[in-house]
Amino acid sequence: MILLQWTLTPELLYQAGTGILLFLLVVAAIFSVVQKDLLMAIVGTSLVSLILSVLFLLLHAPDVALTEAAIGVALTTAIFLIALRKTGRYEE
Amino acid sequence: MIYYIASIAVMLIGLYAVLVKKNLIKIVIGLSLMDAGTHLLLVAIGFIKGGTAPIFSEPGLTADAMVDPVPQALVLTAIVIGLAVTAVALALVIRIYAQHKTLDIRKISSLKW
Amino acid sequence: MKKLLAAFLLGFIGYYLYTAFAGVPFGENKMEVGKDYLETTVPKTGAVNTVTSIVVNYRGFDTLGEVTVLFLAATGLGAILFGMKGKPEDKHREPSSILTTGAKALFPIIVLLGAYIFIHGHLTPGGGFQGGTIIATGVLILILGIKSFHANHALLSVMESLAGITFVVAGILGLAFGKNFLENILPLGTPGQVLSAGIIPIIYIAVGFKVGAELAGVLDTLMSTTRGEE
Amino acid sequence: MPELFPLSPVHYVAAPLLAAFLLPLVAKLSRSFIKILPGLTFLYVLYVSAVLYPQALQAPIIEQIAGWAPPLGINLYYGPMAGLFASLFSALGFIVWLYSLTQMKQEPLDRFYILLMMLVAGATGMVLTGDIFNLFVFMEITAISAYSLTAFLREDDKAEAGFKYILIGSLASAFVLLGIAILYSYTGTLNLADLALNMDKVPLSVRVIVFGLFLVGFGIEAEIFPLNGWAPDAYSAAPAPVSALFAGITVKAALYALARVTILLFPFAGSMALISILGLVTLVISELAALHQKNLFRMLAYSSMGQVGLAIAALGLFTAEGVYAALFAMINHAIVKGMLFLTVFAMAGGSATLDGLNGMGRKKPILSLLFTLGAFAIIGLPPFSGFWSKLSVLTAMGQTGNYAMIAIVLATTIVEAAYFLRATGRLYLSEGNPAEGKTPLSAIAALAVLAAGILWIGFFPGSIDETLTAGAQDLLDTAKYTEGVLKD
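The joint structure predicted for all components is written out below.
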């Protein structure tokens, strides 16, 4: 009977969604710090930015979400990748 | 509340990378993670349950049903500043690499603490 | 040993940060100044997007500083990497013709999108910074897609300067009209229209051009820097 | 003109900004504009000071940017203290420009002058602003210029010093931003005066945490021990004119911010005592470290931190006399240390060691004389400016009964005297290699202005008494500050 009360209300879905996103955010952050291959680490940071920009949308901050998407996901990643091309790829 | 915890966690992960990691690019990654955590924290402070985005795009919206716009404006500024710092830091990394052919701070004598 | 020390420090900072924020209720309305902004933005600034009106009007001084920070980053980056221009990296790979054609076709669309975003900054989400960044991304696609492409630095720096001067002059005009620095001197118009909100669209368009030019310059400078091995 | 453009404090920031944006354009017309434009800008800003500062001594000038009354808008607070600092920064900027005209040859010069102007404008903005987030933005402007200038020269180790600086500086700004976030989440406002009135909304334990964040954040920029590991590297890596500005401007702006924030938002006895103790520790450790340095710029950097430590120790008393003494010490330090950096560079070049000074007394008599003057002034020998500043520090400490502090300050003075006299002795008592090259007149003129300042204050200490007293009162009178800003 108790199980039946756990219907998927939009509210619950929303909360579960944010919970998962926040969890993924932390995992992506840890990944980008631990990963020895710097290319993968940079992919990790851009993933952090991507999740962040979705979270900003959920927090009703579309302006910030757009900024994070344009700057964090696209531009910062590009700059990191260019810097990586000019230096070495692996962490010793 | 979980927003606060997660963003503080991201910030601390970044700080950990800055303090412990030996690779210059990793350290810069740590700095940008610290920034990311702070930004999420600020936006989360301004959030109001049941609020809408602070844009009067439709006639029916009223001021008392909106989230706080101030932290959003601050974060916008902070993100751009973060990008600027990251770009300068990476330019320095490129120059250090050109001189020393390594990104490992243990091999660059003047970067040891 | 160092890791242990770091872990201790992290625990220390984390604990105190957590206690500081534990007293801040999440999701509740605790606005003081924010409320005033929301209530006055449409009647007093003419901007429908409150975030834009704060960024460009109420706290426009911050934004002038922010534009300066980006300008300084571009300037500093050029100074740091000065004299490190190398030969173009041609040995790596040739961009495929699909990429080249695609870049040429995409670029105008991306520029239009960016321009749309900064022209409508006072109405919809986005503004000068977002639009300018999107345009810079378009330039990045050109750099990647067309081998011989190099951004015209002279043109970029003229654009950057003119846009920056526009922002400061818009501020000084406020003083010249007997008002305050950066104060609005234009009619507010009908909120919701493209031509409304006084000087906000003008400033945001200038910011858009400036950010676009600066970031494109930064990307091009970084791309044309030599690799360490040479 | 006065009717068309009424002078207001915002000109301190707007004029250099306009010049910085214009510089790339006019550089295309003629290369010589690159050098002229910054000079004109600094002259204009000095003119602003000449008009506004006397007014500020009567009553603080409060300007509302964009016409929004605080706490909605950002305001500038141009009181006696901010006016003093802004005028000092403008004057130092002008002198360093005059010196750089002939001494700074490294390309790209247009970028160098843009960064130089913005370093001064950013520091001035930090001093003027009445809004805590705006303070953060100006701190970033100053910091990014400083990072780039540190790595401006091409030689080895410059980029490393810049990276170290950017790393620690970013931590500083992250901490300050966090502090701002906490304050905003409790009070819902960002204006300093409004925050001061609303601090009771913040629980005491949280206030301590925020104070810690600000102390670390501003303390890094103000080179307080143990957060100053970046400073010797940055000072010795940066071009000498820039090092002079670091010592004279960046540190002062950060100190001003720390003092203003502490006194407005965290006026509890513990926070002030902590600042005082940190200042003393900085003083002792830096002076001892300076004793071991072979590289002259590192020696001056450590000595600089020591001097700032002295100022912080006096500031931490937070009595009228203490702040007066701290202000005096800061002004003295800005003038004297600026002169020493510039003199050493003109005398022995960018990588000067103690040996480089050997026998300079005969080869470059004017520069040697200036160095000696600076060394004596730093040690605190009468009748130079340093004597009066040290005396006022000791008096302030005596009045609060801190005799241990007096003993420490006197002991460090002996250490200071040891290494500065050693350096001076090299000038006159040792034989050295023949030096070549003449120092251009404009560089000598720049140094002469500073030397004149040292002597003027040395012989007529009463002439700056009024400004210092007004500055100290301005900082301590928080009620006047908040009422002035929030009068509407």
